[in-house]
Target: 3-oxoacyl-[acyl-carrier-protein] reductase FabG
Amino acid sequence: MALVTGASRGIGKGIAKKLASEGMIVIGTSRSQSGIKIINNYLKNNGTSFILNTVNVNSIKNSIKNIYKNFENIDILINNIGIVEDKLLINMTHKTWEKVLNTNLNSLFHISKPIVQKMIKKRNGKIVTIGSIMGNIGNCGQTNYSASKSGILGFHRSLALEVASKGICVNVISPGFIETKMTKRLTKFQKMKYLSKIPLKRFGTINEISETVSFLVSDRVNYITGQVIHINGGMYMP
Model:
């Protein structure tokens, strides 16, 4: 049983479809009813969907409770929630700062805690969170986003240490520029600028992210934990 947050579009949708195609029952989440409809349409009999409002702590807690009322176990957690609201720091409001940090980082605490507690009891589980290259290199106009993605790295390394003895593996996938609706909105000049920094001279694909997730959560991989897997075409090499 796999829970994939932010599963109505982009990378989250790709991951959910990939796991479902491999025979897993998938629970996908979205913030909206329209997103729920999309998830149900592609999962069909391979899973279901739940509303998850990541801005509201009580909503998160209630959603997780409802999921466990319907399903006994969540074996795999894929944290894929993320938003951007770009502004230079001098123009950024506190509201914008908090919104991005609450959605991208603080929600991980509220989602992961009850699920990890259940995983510890059965001494088994896989957690993969989608980070970003910006958590390592930063980006002009993205102090909020970059801070949230940097926070993900520390959160998961610490969590990996806490739960390794309980048979739970915790990892982060950190994509660079991936072909999504977001990158399709880039101007030709912006795209050329970013491609010039990528040794492989192309953007990655959602499938390349999904395949890596599939590998990390599979039964044949139980000795990888606390790692950050960079998928960026060589743009960042730690």
